[in-house]
Amino acid sequence: MKIKLIVPALLMLCICFSFINKLADDPFTILINRLQEYNKNHPQEKVHLHLDKPYYAIGDDVWFKGYIINTQTNEPTDISKVLYVDLINEKDAVKTHLKLPMSGGITWGDFKLPDTLTEGNYRIRAYTQLMRNAGPEYFFDKTIKIGNSWANKVFAATTYNYSKEKTVDRVSAQIKFTDKNNQPYPNCEVSYEVQMNAKNIDKGKATTNANGEVSINFSNPQPALYKSGKIIATITLNNKEKIVKSIPITAASNNIDVQFFPEGGNLIESLPNKVAIKAVNAAGLGVDVTGTIADSDGTEVNRFESRHLGMGTFIINPQPGKTYVAKVQFKDGSTQTFNLPKTQLSGYILSVNNKDPEKVSLKIMMSPDLTGPTELKLVAQHSGTVYFVTKPASQKQIITASIPKKELPSGIIQFTLFNGANVPVCERLAFVNNIEDRIKTTIENLQPSYAKRGKVDINLNSQFNNKVSRGSFSVAVTNTAVVKPDPENETNILSTMLLKSDLAGYVEQPNHYFLKNDAQTAQDLDELLLTQGWRRFSWKNVINNSMPAAPFKAEKSLAISGTLTSYGGKPLPNSKVSLFSSSGGFFAIDTLTDAQGRFNFDNLIFTDSTKFLVQGRTAKNKKNVEIKLDAVPGQIVTKNKNTGDIEINVNEALSGYLKSSNNYFDELTKRGLLERSIILNEVNIVKKRDAVPNSANLNGSGRADFVVTAEMLENCVTLSQCLQGRIAGLMIENGTAYLMRSMSLGGKQPMQIILDGMRVEPDFLDNIMPTDVQSIEVLKSIGNTAIYGSQGGGGVLVITTKTGNGASGSRFVPGIITYNPKGYNLIREFYSPKYDATSPGTQPDLRSTVYWQPNIVTNTEGKAAFSFFNTDEAGTYRVVVEGIDVMGHLARAVYTYEVK
């Protein structure tokens, strides 16, 4: 009996194993597994910065909080621990580069905007080293306007007019130069250069008229190549002072580009096709149009009109043997005819209906020749993670399917249709906006109105799915009478994390799609995805098993690593490497190289401008070794993709804010709380004879009791030999330098050695090769040593090597190099005054950012409390809250109250 039962069981087991092996050998299963394996081994990250304001003025601080998530889990990242944030000017040059420590996927910091900067369209860019593998198009990259009234003498307002002479585009720029009181600069000479794509195409001179105006006319020699540029205008004022203004050229013509995008990819003959339209002007901004569709016989088959930012859709059913054109009418009444994409005789259409709030409905249509027993595959994935797979048979021309939205994450879902040969034949992007995926925040105790300088106490509550939510939040409070909100363009954690971070290219008014949760907004968003199909992930690489390389590793901590080799390049295993630093107190640590000669000092914590000394010795304590430090190349600055966000007249656009901020900065300057640069008259500087390049002398370069030059060291074997008997009052004992006055007092305090700005031990002197030294500044007198405090009591030797900047690892003696890596930037705290009956304050309070707090953490009950005081200015105050919890759920809320 038992044998009879065992035989069928073995038979079923064999069948199961056969099925599993067959499934494992299925090419499509292999394809999906390959994708999942790549995702697991090559995770990606997204960054959002919450800024305190939508725009700024020179003199302001830009306060921000960074939120970083792992795209695979949609949770705060635990992969990277370091975030880079850059402030980039209109010349695509980095003006400030921050390196910030991250914990639990969050960090915060700020930029100061000194008066050495000019007004313009700046960018704030944020990324991790790991994000560089996906490319800069997926960095956080926000264009912000920074005006300048406080430190500005000349304002330039520009208008452009466009015309066409035959096939040549002509541009006329009218520039008006005024002072901050809007008074013109008449009869001033202006020289200018016109640059398009960084190439000079015109230059000249002009004189301002009685209204301070000049007219500059130029032509665009290559309209297809030159799309934008700038006018560099230099105005000479009556006091002969020259002021340079850089004026953006956002467009070189009034041409409008119209494109058509069939849903799924192609127009298929005899099948109803949805086609999206997108019209943009030369500056990259959407332009609304209307038009008609006609076939090759001239018969009108449909009409269309754009609904939002030049985007819209229409339906067409291409007939055999027919071609189609679109006659587009623009706002000025002009028309232009465009050919629709060529109709394919055979193919598939993948159509998505995303109107139902509960589900995504899909329809697969195919030409009759493609029907049959072949099995199709439909895949839905988000950021490389597959959420849905179905394998319908292609026996019918129309196949339908639906997916409950609750089974999909919020964000961009990529639907791909594969044919029987596992080749992708159609693709469609759709957006899932699950409101229940977000943290719900409420605030208690907020009154409808307060007095000026009144105290505001707020209790923040956070919930997810009606349960307590513990999260990290940031809060920005501004007065809308001073800082007018720009809700469709201000940075928003939802639009960044759910939309822009997965789309390459420029997205106009991204926050428009999150201000309302209605049918019209959903349709606008669907049309955006129909017309902007670039995304983070491509199936082509998976199919070819050629996923892109990932040369940049996740940065877990600050580290100094490299390789120890012989002069012939042979790795030196089991050799000693020491790391020294005297910044913030002397420390030293040692390690041994591995079998490949590699060494690594990790888990370091140091601030920017910290200098290190790296020393290597062989296993036999020989110093003739080569130290090669690992260096990660810096991130290049790409062209600004946010062309539509560039403002030609920044100061004019921010005039109201600049007037208010100017009063605020003047008040701070009077109180000594804001530094202001003073421009001196031009003078000729005569180089001091003993000035030392790259000197770290705290008294100033060359300010010493004696300077030993490189020429004086040419015939010395050791520095002890060079210094002995050359400098009065200095003697050498066992390779250590002393001043005789120190020895006579019985203290016998050795001279302190400062090597390329870093303190090293006094007995280190003869480790330095004389031929590698540029200079030695000898500090003996109390006037020169006092600045070094007690460490300089025995005198100081400031030694500068011939490669003594130490920026990327400078060698000055065998087995030793100096190194000055980028460290963490200090995180400052936002100043918020406190007023009460005993301390009401008498100074005017004109803050533009009323309150900023990047580190509000809710407790186990989902609550957090914070408070602040209003300013002296009345208006509607706006409280913006953003945040994230440990599961990656996002929060965004805006509250208002009145100050009277």
TrEMBL record:
Keywords: Receptor, Signal. InterPro entries: CarboxyPept-like_regulatory, Ig-like_fold, Invasin/intimin_cell_adhesion, Plug_dom, Plug_dom_sf. Residues 707-796 form the TonB-dependent receptor plug domain. Coiled coil: none annotated. Gene3D superfamilies: 2.60.40.1930, Immunoglobulins (2.60.40.10), TonB-dependent receptor, plug domain (2.170.130.10). The keyword Translocase does not apply. The keyword Signal applies. It comes from the Bacteria. Residues 1-24 form the signal peptide. Pfam families: Plug. This is TonB-dependent Receptor Plug Domain.
